[in-house]
Structure to design on (335 residues):
């Protein structure tokens, strides 16, 4: 936390204000008066640094947006407890140094209320700074997503056919296929579903996991028609995970990469697994590694695109593992 100047200026300023508020403006600056100012500075320093440490600790423990209410409650209670303990400590310290307590035992609660003023000021300072910082980061994230969306749309406009033309062509092709040719009809329907999903989801930041899984199933159907039993697919998605979201086309892109960069043959079937894990907030795409030879090396553009998108969408990073002959990519599930 870059708050050096806030502390260098804030602590002396608040200590002077608090001393003048409780003791008034001195008629002359004597040694006892100067001692009072120094002790007021010590009080402010202790309360400021202590509450600052509590703020940083609770920010680390409860960093997610949905934990804000819990963090604020705990921060309030812990600050009050710290200030109360500090009041008793400072009261006894003043008795040891100057022979008299800051306040008598019966007035400890009044002294505690007085110490709560700098506590409230400090926590308000840091909460305001944090709120503004989060607002600025969210604004930058939204602008980055908007720029990425515009770029994707431009790329799509450069590369894709007019949607109406393609769908009309698919309908015409379906009419040309004989009714008893069920595999061809099914293949054409799956192809139309794949293209329809790409068109519908391209303007979305996130999509429900169940929609992405349905799209991947249609995409895999097209590829299994080509590779038959040489392409093996397993799914282990929990029911609860279907209510979460993912970045559109992210799972499909990982499956596509697995098919594109690995040998698929009767001797070396490709096994692709889509799964969620109990107690985890990730969905994983895993495949056995059997790289093609004599082909152009992967540029990893697709994987980089996924990583960059999730960096804007989630606090949790995309995890990439390659071990035991398996290549695994774990994507955070988005609420």
């Amino acid at each position: 936390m870059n708050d050096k100047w806030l502390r260098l200026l804030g602590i002396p300023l608040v200590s002077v204000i608090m001393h003048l508020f409780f003791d008034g403006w001195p008629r002359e600056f004597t040694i006892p008066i100067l001692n009072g100012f120094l002790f007021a500075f010590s009080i402010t320093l202790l309360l400021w640094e202590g509450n600052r440490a509590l703020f940083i600790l609770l920010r680390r423990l409860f960093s997610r947006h949905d934990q804000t209410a819990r963090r604020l409650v705990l921060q309030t209670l812990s600050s009050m407890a710290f200030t109360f303990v500090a009041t008793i400590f400072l009261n006894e310290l003043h008795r040891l140094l100057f022979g008299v307590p800051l306040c008598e035992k019966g007035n400890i609660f009044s002294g505690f209320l007085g110490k709560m003023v700098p506590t409230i000021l400090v926590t308000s300072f840091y909460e305001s700074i944090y709120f503004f910082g989060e607002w600025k980061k969210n604004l930058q994230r939204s602008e980055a997503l908007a720029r990425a969306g515009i770029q994707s749309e431009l790329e799509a406009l450069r590369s894709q056919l007019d949607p109406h033309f393609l769908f009309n062509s698919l309908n015409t092709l379906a009419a040309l296929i004989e009714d008893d040719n069920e595999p061809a009809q099914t293949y054409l329907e799956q192809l139309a579903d794949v293209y329809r999903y790409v068109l519908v989801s391209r303007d979305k930041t996130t999509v429900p996991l169940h929609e992405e899984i349905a799209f991947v199933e249609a995409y895999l159907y097209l590829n299994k028609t080509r590779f038959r039993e040489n392409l093996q697919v397993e799914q282990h998605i929990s029911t609860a995970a279907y209510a979460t979201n993912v970045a559109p086309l992210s799972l499909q892109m990982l499956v596509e990469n697995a098919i594109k960069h690995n040998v698929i043959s009767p001797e070396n079937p490709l096994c692709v697994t889509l799964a969620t894990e109990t107690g985890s907030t990730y969905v994983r795409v895993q495949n056995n590694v059997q790289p093609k030879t004599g082909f152009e090396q992967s540029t990893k553009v697709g994987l980089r695109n996924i990583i960059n998108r999730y960096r804007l969408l989630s606090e949790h990073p995309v995890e990439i593992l390659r071990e035991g002959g398996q290549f695994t990519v774990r994507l955070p599930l988005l609420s």
